[in-house]
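Run log, item B.
One chain of 532 residues. Sequence copied directly from the ordering sheet:
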Amino acid sequence: MKKLNCFILTCFISLNFFSFTAFAEEKFISVGLTKYKGVSNISLDNNYITLGKENNYSFSSDFSLNSSSNFTIKPLSNYTIKYTQSFSSYNEALSISMNYNDSYVYKENNYYTMIGNFNSSSEANNFMLNQNINGEVLKLDNTIGIYDNNKLLIAYKDSIAIKSNDYISLGNKPYRNFINIVSKNNRLVTTNIVNVEEYLYGVVPSEMPPSWSKEALKAQSVAARNYAYSNAGIHKNEGFDLCDTIHCQVYEGVNNEQQSTNQAIDETKGVLAYYNNQLINTVYSSSSGGYTDDAINVWNDNIPYLKAVKDEFEEGAKQWTRTFTFDELSSVASVGTVNEVILENSSITGRANRLTLVGTNGNKVLEKDEIRTFFSKFNGGTLESKNFKMSKGNTYISPNTTKSSKAIVNNTNSNIVVISSKGNNPINKENSFVIDKNNNTSKVKDTFIIDKNNNTSNLLNNISNEKPQNNIAESVNYASKVSRQDSNSITFIGKGWGHGVGMSQYGANSLAKKGYKYDEILKYYYTGIEVR
């Protein structure tokens, strides 16, 4: 389950891209496709495309091309000869182009014939004089070329918009509507221009399992819609509204669309959440672990609808442990040798308010979301949540809790079951395999565990028959202060996944199972709002 990274919030979001009066109308956004940002080569899966220009989120068509295979897009940076005469159509310019080898059509305001690909201005000038060509030498930069079987067909200055009859597809990943490609510093930046509702088709199943309760999916749909409207433009300096990663909302295009989530989006079409008639920024995370956090405790913004809420019905909260030695902490804290760690938790939510690393050259005080992000310097990255306690040493937790807690394994009816955000997935012992980091495989039944004393035992014998619990390690001796004299390491034992502000996705599903409607779920997590 993906969740949102933290970002700076303002108490009331000012919409620069959309007006409040027009939410019911069809609106479009540009989504940056991270895989195709700053690249030098893009391959299209379509063999029929229409080329044009993007104009205020609309597609302005120029002409269409067919290919016996597929098209490739590359930036152009070279010297060439621009034939003097301009043309009103692609075919007119092409008729002149066919008289020369290594020639192609160029589209700026009009169509032109371009001749040759030269390394220098003098080389191009000599060729132009020898061939008695009526033209001028140009140095192309930030120009985009469309190739068919390595033959350059057409080049566009600065940007090009591309669509197809059905979906436009890159790397076997189809997208709705059209893509826009811009050349910046002779590298390509690709965006998908898409209707907001159809954008949500690719977001909601990426952010919440489509098998979850319908009302939870509808709550997620509204939250994702609010997020899109209230955050459109945060990547304006990069040339698009939102990215397709966890930084904004995970967007997978058409491939990830599901009937259940499409239906949830359609049934809530145009529905948004407001506070005092202002559109709210519906941040959310995977699970709170029992209590959501106040935005002021994470991003230092006092936002009236993002207050801490007791998440008493949340089931399946992620559980995790992370262990750090004092030497590891000393290597990154920049306070000399760390000899003590002090944890201060909220008396209400139980979440960490302050974490102090006491060193020989001063103290490193972690507050807000830095309590999580500070640990991005270690293997395992940012702490899974701020809902954790501390114990000394490398504390042993039950076999049902893994270090990352992204999956819990138990043994049910003689089958191994992996429990994840997608549900229970039984694995047959005879026909299932374990794959290591080098892609070597072995049967589950033939896999062994080696403990610290080099004793071996079969994996199946080490899998607990107990069901995973929400409350882990209840017998652990927690401490608010651990010193190097006590132990050479500390362990954080936590639950929840993500920043913990706003809606808990696991909690939303639990509320839906208890009969809550989608608007009631949203009102549960976002204080004092209206949904309409």
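Observations after the first pass:
- Residues 1-24, 398-427, 463-470 have pLDDT under 50 and may be disordered.
- Residues 214-231 form the longest helix (18 residues).
Flagged for discussion on Thursday.
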